[in-house]
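quick one before i forget lol
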Amino acid sequence: MTKRIAVIGAGTIGASWAAYFLARGFEVSAYDPAPNGEDFARHFIDNAWPILEKLKAVQAGADRKCLSFFKDPATAAKGAAFVQESGPEREDVKIELFAAIDGAAPADSVIASSSSGLLISRVTTKCRHPERCVIGHPFNPPHLIPLVEVVGGAKTSPDAVIKAMNFYRGIGKYPIHVKKEVLGHAANRLQMALWREAIHLVMEGVVSVADADAAIAYGPGLRWALMGPHLCFHMGGGDGGMKHYMEHLGPANQSWMDDLGTPRLDAKTQKAIIDGVTEEAAGRSMDDLRRWRDRKLIEILRVSGEP
């Protein structure tokens, strides 16, 4: 396995990736166009390192100083057998980034994009070697959350998908193979389905924003930290499992599905959600919320493990 990984785009997502790659013992070559890009990334890594140590994710010999910054993406990509692109979520920007990376990275390297919803087939339209390009979408923050969605495009080779899956799995991530390109991939679409109904319930006056969040955080969300909805409902069927669940609760569940809402994010809806979240945050700053989130994530990760 290569000891050098390129991180193209070192903002919140890229810096988080860089921290994790460094912790796993890799050298990281990074690029970010922001004037303070290097300072931001190094500060982020310094803050993330103690957390990674608590999770025992820092391998023996790993050194956070094994980070080099470059002034252009092509130079950063040279010599890297794996490239993690985490630039702005804009198709036009990623097309140019991928063209530059593809022209510089070694021929046998895999180029992965952290894009949360774009299609790799479109992002690689200017690449000479789109067969080695994939989506490698993490969940925020990547240095903590194990999930990575791997998606190939129309011209991606099966070998590149396998190499990406093996790479992520080998560094302690939990990759899933999204077999077909769709906007938002899989996990974000699942999130949007839930959020859409939460917004609908708020706008219909059924619950407040805070209570919609509490309905998940203190209910099914606790189970979802351990298993997904299918396995949850399988267990909900008792000894008969999913078959018994479908036989007895399938019709009721279908009636609930049929009654789900389809709200629009118009100005009125946006204001209601923004006001509700502001009230729920109760004056806590984003830094306060991040520290609280990360502290709780560490506790969950310590006990959840793999299935």
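fyi The chain has a mean pLDDT of 95.
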